[in-house]
UniProtKB/TrEMBL annotation:
Keywords: DNA-binding, Transcription, Transcription regulation. The keyword Cell division does not apply. The keyword Nucleotide-binding does not apply. Residues 2-59 form the HTH lysR-type domain. It comes from Microbacterium kribbense. This is LysR family transcriptional regulator. Belongs to the LysR transcriptional regulatory family. Pfam families: HTH_1 (PF00126), LysR_substrate (PF03466).
Amino acid sequence: MFTLDQLRCFTAVAEELHFGRAAEVLRMTQPPLSRQIQRLEEHVGVVLLERDNRRVALTEAGRAFLREARSILASAERAPETAREIAAGSSGVLRIGFTAASTYSVLGTLLTRIDEQLPGVQVELEELVTQNQRDGVISGTLDLGIARPPFDPAVFGVRRLFTEDLMLVVPTGHPLADAGEPPTAAQLGAQALILPDSGKAWYFYDLAVRVLPIDHARVVHTVSQIATIVTLVAARRGISFVPASARVLGIKGVTYIPLGPAAEGIVELDAIWNRASTNPALHRALSVIHAASEVL
């Protein structure tokens, strides 16, 4: 295999088209320079330079090889700095998983802060439910998750990013929209309900049944996405329960109603990571996340 020294010798001769001047540039004598070019051509298996006593010229193969040689030398020169940047966490890749509902609240702000403070870090995003994020963080296919609790603190580092209220969403003009106070159990029990799916959207389902008197005989639809729930409510298919941040969806034809003290601040969103991770970009990003979580 050829060496970087051989590439530097070839590049100097190719640019100067004169062995004597190339030797001066390289601060060496001509005989070892000539030997380096000969060895390079032997490794490559083609003539790269045509030379006689009067002239030196690149062959067609030599011109093509010069482009590649310059690229290799440039990469070799960048490699140490790139390694130092990655080791310092100012460069590299950060793979982030997120729940769909996190886009209504913290995701955009968090990504902006990472871009501003770690411009050399490439962020890769993947929308996943919480369980798949847990699996990805444990296996190493994800560096960071933005997901719903709970998490095992022995495995995961956890930082609370955001808390918000669980709210009732009803069609515009619905009698509950004008009540001026949280609905009673009797009022909720008389309504057709759209519930989060207990399997795919278990977090919101668990919150709803924990704080509200749910009559499952009144459930007309179960769906997994918050946006779908609000859209069905706007279509007057029933009423439902969503995080307060769902209001940013801007879906017309619905009204959001507070559910009272029991539903205040109960919707939680966490940043999670593997405590055993050695990705320097993650550890730099965590400092950004810790600062951001104080103002989100």
